[in-house]
Specification:
The complex is a heterodimer of chains A (352) and B (131). Chain A contains 8 helices and 18 strands. Chain A has 352 residues and is of the alpha+beta class. The chains are: A alpha+beta (352), B alpha+beta (131).
Chain lengths: 352, 131
């Protein structure tokens, strides 16, 4: 893809002014880091950071038929949501593979907002629109919004927001900007994601950064999510992997009918042949996506954990090798390095 | 953590962003400020074994940041006399002081005349300017 084709969020000029290293990501020109991945990671674990995630897609699904449409296409049970609530869910294909993982926000009985991965926006939109039924309207509104994630133990206080249960949302005002305050995130920390009109994104960003919140790039977003074992679509979960093997059975209501449910029930019944596990390196080495695991298996995500100061990762291994404590040997560019399976998440926040 | 951009005048440079400090028939090798800056905070130095050999223009190790890994190319050929254990244990020292405490290996030169093919600081600055 040529540079000309890369899209920019409303905050592009802010990132450049802050000295961010900009990289192509899912068709967007995004900041991978400002000061550095490690200090940004630690800022979120110990204080707070702000991420521009305006590249993510927003799809409105509206109309009297919207609940029926989504209930048949998404893995989780949407009927459990009340207005103001949200849920992690999967858009599945006929084989039980994962077209995208997303968060569904219930805005009303006839209205759900889906926030999808940037790289899957077009695929998810097409998937939904091709399956529209009478009384539904599926609309891509991605260009209308800016989305800022403010995450970390001091995030809520810095925004003047009260505590609220995870996976809820409400309208509010932050730094004079009207926002949808979503109690969601991708870091394992307390915090919110703030959805605003794209025209307001710069004002919201400036207000947040102005209170001393550390700007954080995609690099820290990846290390943070991997420490807490949140899967990344395209790495850990794909259209060719199923939710049961990935450990996402909790997001699948196998007692309802949705695309691919029969395949998922079969995997559940027979037991997965391989499982997505988390592991920690026992030798100095940084595991990376695509590295083979001896005895069958493959690393799907790997990095250096800034908090543990060692290599960590996730990958698929034979079900017999999936128990915590199991030794793994990873082929790191021809050198065999020892690791062991750990219980997810890799990093558990100590209660203060 | 990283210092200001610098390229000492007493070093010889390889265009793959490696430096050599020649001391008689030995040399200390490392990566340049530009290389560590391009990679970002280093988290791993995959070091070669002492007693092994390095060959000019070939990789003898790897340096790795959170996001990326890069070969370390030997500017000169020789036998590895010493590996900087500090760079192994605290790879961030390579960012902090790439020409000092962040050196990588010490070698005994097998062909000191190879140094004639390396760049001086002006030549290397020209390489960096083209990046």
């Amino acid at each position: 893809m040529s540079d000309e084709a890369l899209r920019r969020t409303p905050l592009y000029e802010r990132h450049v002014a802050l000295g961010a290293r900009m990289v192509p990501f899912a068709g967007w020109e995004m900041p991978v880091q400002y000061e550095g991945v490690i200090p940004e990671h630690l800022a979120v674990r110990r204080g707070r950071g702000v991420f521009d995630v305006s590249h993510m897609g927003q799809i409105h699904v509206e109309g009297p038929g919207q609940a029926e449409l989504l209930q048949g296409l998404l893995s989780n049970d949407l009927s459990r949501l009340a207005d103001g609530e949200a849920q992690y869910t999967l858009l599945t294909n006929e084989r039980g593979g994962i077209v995208d993982d997303l968060i569904a926000y219930r805005l009303g009985p006839f209205h759900t907002l889906l926030v999808v991965n940037a790289g899957n926006r077009a695929a998810a939109l097409a998937w939904l629109q091709e399956r529209e039924i009478r009384g539904t309207e599926v609309r891509d509104a991605s260009a209308e919004y800016g989305l800022l994630a403010v995450q970390g133990p001091t995030a809520l206080a810095s925004l003047g927001l009260r505590q609220a249960p995870a996976f809820t949302h409400a309208l509010g005002e932050v730094h004079g900007v009207e926002v949808m305050v979503c109690r969601t995130g991708y870091t394992g920390e307390a915090g919110v994601e703030l959805l605003c009109a794209s025209d307001d994104a710069v004002r919201l960003w400036d207000g947040i950064v102005g209170t001393g919140t550390t700007p954080c790039g995609l690099g820290a977003r990846d290390t943070l999510r991997l420490e807490v074992c949140y899967p990344l679509h395209g790495n850990d979960i794909t259209a060719a992997t199923d939710a049961i093997s990935a450990g996402l059975g909790w997001a699948c209501a196998l007692d309802k009918e949705f695309t691919g449910v029969a395949a998922l029930r079969a995997v559940e019944e027979e037991g997965p042949k391989r499982r997505l596990v988390a592991f920690v390196m026992d030798e100095k080495a940084v595991p990376r996506q695509g590295m083979p695991v001896e005895g069958g298996g493959e690393v799907t995500s790997g990095t250096h954990s800034p908090l543990l100061d060692r290599g960590i990762g996730m990958g698929y291994v034979p079900a017999a090798a999936a128990a915590p404590g199991t030794e793994l040997v990873i082929d790191v560019r021809g050198r065999l390095k020892r690791a062991h399976v750990v219980k997810k998440p890799i990093y558990v926040k100590e209660e203060s | 953590m990283a210092g200001a951009e610098s390229y000492p005048a007493d070093l010889k440079y390889h265009p793959e962003h490696d430096w050599a400090r020649i001391e008689g028939d030995e040399a200390v090798l490392g990566i340049t400020w530009w290389a560590q800056d391009a990679l970002g905070e280093l988290v791993h130095f995959e070091a070669p074994a002492v007693g092994g050999s390095v060959v000019k223009d070939e990789a003898y190790g790897e340096v790795e940041s959170v996001k990326a890994v890069s070969d370390v190319v030997a500017p000169l050929s020789g036998e590895i006399l010493e590996v900087n254990e500090k760079a192994v244990e605290e790879p961030e020292s390579i960012n902090g002081d790439p020409y000092g405490e962040g050196w990588l290996v010490r070698i005994r030169l097998s062909d000191p005349s190879e140094a004639d093919e390396l760049l001086d600081v002006e030549g290397y600055r020209a390489v960096v300017a083209e990046q």
